[in-house]
Amino acid sequence: MKRGKLIAGVIGLVxxxxxxxxxxxxxxxxxxxxxxxxxxxxxxxxxxxxxIPNFATGLLMLATWVVCNAVPFETSFAIFSxxxxxxxxxxxxxxxxxxxxxxxxxxxxxxxSFFPANFKGQSLALFISGTIIxxxxxxxxxxxxxxxxxxxGISNALSYKPKSKASSGLFLAAMWGFFVxxxxxxxxxxxxxxxxxLLPTKYQGVLSWGNWFLMMLPWTLIILVAGYMVLxxxxxxxxxxxxxxxxxxxxLADLGPMSRDEKITATAILLAIIMWILxxxxxxxxxxxxxxxxSILVATNVLTADDFKNRLSWSTxxxxxxxxxxxxxxQTVGLTTWLRGILKPVIGPxxxxxxxxxxxxxxxxxxxxxxxxxxxxTGTLVTLALLPLVSxxxxxxxxxxxxxxxxxxxxxxxxxxxxxxxxxxxxxxxxASRAALAKSSIGYMAINIVGLLxxxxxxxxxxxx
Length: 465
Prior knowledge:
The protein has helices spanning 3-22, 31-49, 54-67, 73-76, 83-101, 103-112, 119-133, 140-157, 165-178, 190-198, 201-204, 209-235, 246-255, 260-277, 279-282, 286-299, 305-310, 314-332, 335-351, 354-368, 375-386, 398-407, 418-426, 434-461. By secondary structure, the protein is mainly alpha-helical. The longest helix is centred in the C-terminal third of the chain and has 28 residues, at 434-461. The relative contact order is 0.14.
């Protein structure tokens, strides 16, 4: 273990032990609440400095609650029997099938073949193909690892120099389309389900697949239109004359005709999305829908036992489950009530008005990202800080999840966004300059707030703001 991690780990443990056993219990809190608070402090230090793998920290946190008699085992680990966990597993399995069969790559290249072979045309193609593919793969890293090599192939075909303006722009178009649009669809990333799972149960129903898509539609349009304009303004080369589409046509030809497994996977994903949209009408939970189609993929041998072992990130699934457990346990031991009294004077004015919230909360999250690297850890911290104040909010608390989801995806500095690092590593860090990343992130940060503001009238019409 590196020295920095070791020091952070020792500090985290000392603080946790001190809070749980030596600091006098404040009025209004029980010893159980102090144990939960202590483990939350320790866990966050471990997550921020990556002392040990994130999922291991989460499991130790849940186990500590049981060992210290803060809550019983059934309460501590209850989240692992919920529908939220099973839809994450099912969604990841559907995404694994789409990646394994080559369906995603085929969709991307096919869309690109319809657009001019220049910067404007292919950056637009990456935006559109990424947005279509986003809800099919609920994991950011595979999408980042898959999309940037496609962008690199286009960049090379257009004779753009490595890390030039144009090369940087195509890299960012790929990440913008495939990754940034994760905020548009509930199923586009497992962390959306994780943030949703932190909410009290009575508010989670608002965030069905269809509702999420509708609530985010204005934001999606703004993100795509304004993002495309920003990237073209910053990175389009002076000479943007279309060239031959030979690269794209060659890639499509190499794929050959659509395979049996691709056809089965495409059908499964399409019907799963339709069933998610119609969840309230057909009365089939989203998790059950996902598992039905995953089972069909297994029965048809599209997915195998080895795929479940190697293609699903079980450490990520466990980590998300441990994070989601926090919301229920904090409420059980009375920690949310105590925090409400402390935070209300400071945050109350912000969350009392949705117009103020969609401006101030993203800015707070942007600042937190300078310290907390993990996207899900940042979102969890902010969401948990606000949960005690749900009764004070001038809008449905489900909107907190929306704001958090869109605002954690910043990449101003390279360490702030792990999926961007994955995308860059997939092309040997040869496409985008650090300056280009910073400029585009500033653009996204501003566009995100504008997009959220434009959503507010729709949210008001829906009765949730």
